[in-house]
Amino acid sequence: MDTVSIGIIGGSGLYQMQELTDKSILQVDTPFGPPSDDLFVGTLAGKRVAFLPRHGRGHRLLPSEIPYLANIHAMRQIGVQHLISVSAVGSMRESIAPGHICLPDQFIDLTKGRPRTFFGGGVVGHIPFDKPVCADLAAVLLQAGEAAGATMHAGGTYVCIEGPQFSTLAESNLYRSWGVAVIGMTNLPEARLAREAEMCFATLALATDYDCWHETAEVSVNQILKIISENVSLAQKIIRHAVQLIPAERGCGCGNALAHAIITDQAAIPAQARQRLDVLIGRYLR
Questions:
Q1: What 3-state class would DSSP assign to 224?
Q2: Which residues are catalytic?
Q3: Rounded Cα distance, 117 and 82, in Å
């Protein structure tokens, strides 16, 4: 199996780059079932990169139907250390106009029933999550975005709602009163699980609309798809720059997030749990 150091989760258009060579389709089976789709692997700027359509090709999966555990585990299985989440979001600030890009560094979770952890079934782990985004990877994305000519906004809170409906006006105004920057439906499960998988994680959030709080807001699928279509090439440029800038060696602590997280006595961990989580915690149990 390919060993890939950089992963991108987002729309299927992201991997349609002329510069992407040595392309292949990789089917990955995980202990948590199949991911959203096959992984699309190629070489970009001399580095192996894996792309995963979050909602499946043809956008078949609701935000609540995405197999988050399988998606993140599949990336970890093939060796991913840096995971970039490219996402369409609604802007909750006048200054973040449609077409701008935000790099949130905090999250608020309003989802219901989404998977939150790989742990359970006989093994308990607690990770620090006060800083859910890798600052080093976010800095790379900021530099890459500026080099690509994008209007970038560094920092801010992403409020993750259940969906699939957009917000009511009352909800939108409530979230704005909390001071959030953007709103979406997918990124917090990804951020939590990426941390447990000891991957550097950051979100490239493409603002497609002003949610419904803005007096000129148009929150519709057509509007969102229009902005996304106009900015696919911009997102591709940012990814190309980011891949070049991501260092081979990590200087952050993301790669050791589980070093002191597992509190279950090793002798008490069931063999089935050991096998299921081997890719994630195996090096701490030997």
A1: helix
A2: 209, 211
A3: 19
Q: How far apart are CA 8 and CA 124, in angstroms?
A: 28
- The CATH number of the structural domain formed by 6-284 is 3.40.50.1580
pLDDT digits (tens, 9 = 90+) for 4-36: 999 999 976 787 888 899 999 999 999 999 999
Read off the DSSP letter of residue 266. G
- pTM: predicted TM-score of the whole model, two decimal places: 0.95
Number of Cβ atoms within 10 Å of the Cβ of 261: 18
Q: What is the DSSP letter of 167?
A: P
Contacts of 250 (CB under 8 A, 6+ apart): 81, 82, 136, 200
- DSSP 3-state of 101: strand
Of 271, 234, 130, 144, whose CA–CA distance to 192 is shortest? 130
Residue 206 tokens, joined:
């493409």
